[in-house]
Amino acid sequence: MHILALSGSLRAQSLNSLLLQEAVRLAPPGMAFSRWEHLDELPHFSPERDAEPLPPAVVDLRARIRAADGLLISTPEYIHSLPAVLKNLLEWVVSSGEGFGKPAAIWSASPSLEGGARAHASLVHILEVMSIRVVPEASLSLTLARSGLNEAGQLQNPAQAAALRAALDWLAAAGEPS
Ligand SMILES: Cc1cc2nc3c(=O)[nH]c(=O)nc-3n(C[C@H](O)[C@H](O)[C@H](O)COP(=O)(O)O)c2cc1C
User: Fold this and answer.
1) Structural domain boundaries enclosing 119
2) Is 22 near ligand 1, meaning CB less than 6 Å away?
3) C-alpha of residue 76 to centroid of ligand 1, in Å
4) pLDDT by residue (tens digit) across 128-141?
5) Which CATH number is 73's domain given?
6) How far apart, in whole angstroms, are the C-alpha atoms of residue 35 and residue 5?
7) Residues 6 or more apart from 45 whose CB is under 8 A from it?
8) 112/2 Cα distance (integer angstroms)
């Protein structure tokens, strides 16, 4: 199963991007990841811009989503919601529909005690509106993420590593043909 992993953060040392790195490290057998790291190259969405010739980052994003069996998105929380850059990415694929029906694991990480739960909930709602198949059991919110990840960006707590692995197992199960 090929999963496209998207971080909602542009930060070099992003906790959410580190969590995606952990997904690659702890992935179950048969699950392969690729990252899409061109968030910063997407222009601001406007319906008038959604016309040929499309910006190269948009063409690439749509092709990568189309080719994936499932999605893993990890979002920061900005002002109790998801960052504008991630919302912008979703606006570029809402009408083109590459994500329709694909299973998705939604994660968030925050230094706070809530783990970005409000951004997580906003993102789940948006993806459901977009007919992306959010897998509830594959959800994860990493609280106190600054201390939860060590200098190598790895989860310190074995229970959290196990929860991450279980989330990926659920995503894999959701991607199996029924
Ligand atoms: C503009 C801004 C708004 C923020 N708002 C929230 C918030 O509402 N809730 C929260 O838990 N953290 C908030 N934070 C802190 C982020 O959770 C923290 O910077 C986190 O590390 C961002 O994710 P990243 O490490 O993946 O970039 C905010 C940070 C910024 C810069």
Assistant:
1) 2-175
2) no
3) 6
4) 999 999 999 999 99
5) 3.40.50.360
6) 5
7) 88, 91, 92
8) 31
